[in-house]
Every structure is written in C-alpha cells, then in structure tokens.
Amino acid sequence: MQGNKSPLTAFFLSFFPGFGHAYLGRFVRFVLYGGSFFGSLGIVFLLGTNGSLHGEAVVILFIAAASWIINMIDMIVSLLNGAGQQRPASPYGADPGMSPGWEASQYAYEQQREKTRTILLSFVPGVGHMAMGMLQRGLAFLVAFVGLLAITIFISIVTNTGSFLVFLLALPVIWIYTLFDAVQQLQRKHRGETIDDRPFFEELEEHIGSGKKNKVLAATLSLFPGAGHLYLGLQKRGLQIMGGFLLSIFLMDSLRLSIFLFLMPLFWFFAFFDALQQMSRYERDQLKDQAVVAQLAPYQKWIGLALLVLGAYYLFDQVMGTYISQTWPSVYREFMKLKYNLPTALVAFVMIAAGLRLVFGGGFKAGSGSIPSEAPPRLPEWDKEERS
Hints:
Elements: H1 7-13, H2 19-23, H3 27-50, H4 56-80, H5 100-121, H6 127-131, H7 135-159, H8 170-190, H9 200-210, H10 215-221, H11 227-231, H12 235-254, H13 263-283, H14 300-327, H15 329-360, H16 381-387
C-alpha cells in the first residue's frame, strides 16, 4: 500500500461490499466480500428470471446480507486500528526523540487517527463524544436520539396512528448536529483549548439567553421545516411553515392525495433555503418576522368557516358514525360512498375553479406578483422650465 488513504472514502466505499477494501489495497477481501454479496444477488436474479425461485432465495439473500454486515464490521474495525494511514518511520540509526520532524509527523498521524475514530463512532449519536472523554455530553445526545425514536414508535403503536411517525424527521436533525459537534469539539481539543463536558441543552440555553444564534444549529434545525425559523425568533414565519408542512402530510394521508406528493420535496427545499437566507439576514441585522402567506389575512373569516365545517364533519363522522351504522345501515352505506368520493370531488372542483380563473379571469393582475410596468421617463430640469 503506497501513501495514505482517506479513511472516510474507504468507509463510504464499503457500502458496496469489497470496494472499500480494494481502495485500501486489500484485494483478497475485495474478492471475498464482493463475490459473496454480488454473486448471491446474481444467483437470485438468474433464478427469478428462469422462474425457479423458491425457498432457497431466503438462504441466498441471508448470505448476501451477512457478507455485507461482516464487510462493514471489518472495515470499521480496520479503520479504528489505523488502516490506510502509514505510521511515520523513525530515521535510520537515530533516536526518534531526537528528530523534530519525526515527532511532528507522529503527532499528525495520531491526530488523524483520532479524528477518524471520532467520526466513525459518531455515526451512533454520542459515542464519539464518549470516546473523547465527554461522557455527559455524549449521554445527552444518545438519550435524546434513542428516546425520541422509542417514544415516537411507542405512541404510534399504542394509538395505532401512523401520523406520529412524522416526528421521526427530527432524528436526522439530532444525528447531523451530533456529528458536527463531535468534529468541532475534537478540533478544539487539537488546538489545545479546554472542552467542557456538559449537556448540549445547557449551551443552547446560554445561546438563547445571550441573544446570539448558532448558524450551524440553525441550519441543522432547518432540516425539519419551520424549526430553524423558530430558533431565529421568526415565530409567524416558522409556525406557518411548520404548520403547513404537517397539515400537508395529514391532508395527503386522510384525503388520499398521493398525486401531490411531488410537492413535498419542493416545500422542504423552500423551507430549508429560506432558513439559510434568514440566517444571513440575521448576521446583517436585517431580520424581519414576515408571514409567508400574508395574503391570507383578508380571508381569515372564510378560513375560520372552513375550519368549523371540517370540525363538524369529523365530529359527525367519528361520533355519530357508529350510531347511524347501527340504526340506519342503508343511510350509512350511502354516507360511506359519499365520504370516499368527496375528497376527490373537492380537489377536482378547486382545480377546475383555479383553471377557469386563470383562463377567463385575466390571470395574475399587476401588483400581485406580475412584472410592474415601466415608469415614465423623468424629464430634466431644463426641459421642465422650457415646457412651463
């Protein structure tokens, strides 16, 4: 093996069994892991195309999964032991302690090895902090991640409601922030600064009390739409974005509007990049809490009426539905048919009304988003005097 190899490159290549080991020059492991994984998948594919795939497919897929897991474990253990990094050799015939160049190379080698170990262990939130000796901070991250995962799944199972699983979107926020925080704490350690072993929520409380905002934390919280805006103090904008995102998920689930799922990534990207833009305005002291949809303010009465109708509908459906099904079965059957087709009919009506408005209503008027007309040219002063 010639030269140093990037441990992170080797780690990510290992998601394709054998490729990470080939990058490190371990061609025997490349053939072993790659052959067992891709060979097993190839056998399953050939058996499936021939129509002779039966119970043996489970055994073959188990072999492929086992080879992938062993490949990853072997790579992680190897990287933690310094694979891919060459330890600097001491000068021939000299005391290593008498060579300043060797000491610098040895120190850089140990720093790179510690950085690799911390990043790899931080894929489990908090473990990288524990490896640096920050037990309290690491436990806080680990409990926050595992606790949120456990309580979300528990509530979803107990209530038999899949809507609670949307809170799992907070897990990538915690994971990414934990990874960045581990790298940041390690850099402080390498610079010789003192690192405080205290839970992250204590630092968050200090940031909120001082009025200063952390750009990395704001960007990380923005992975959940609206959370970054709330952290920056944009209550109106953040609540509108978060409420719109959660309401969209609920409506698409309850009204069977899966055709509009392509809008969710657009919504997410808008919320994320808007939070980054607001953070840049915060650094220039130009932050303003402006609502995203300020045009809805004149229609608040209609919105309130729609909420009242929806509340009455769900009250009738959930409370009176059982009684009607037992008393008037035929009426309840007709109601269920109407309930099934009503969401599609309402969405179709709204789309038709919007289309007619755009076609026959003149489209978007000036002042509501159209390009403003050019202002008349300004006359010079001498021309004004001559005209007068």
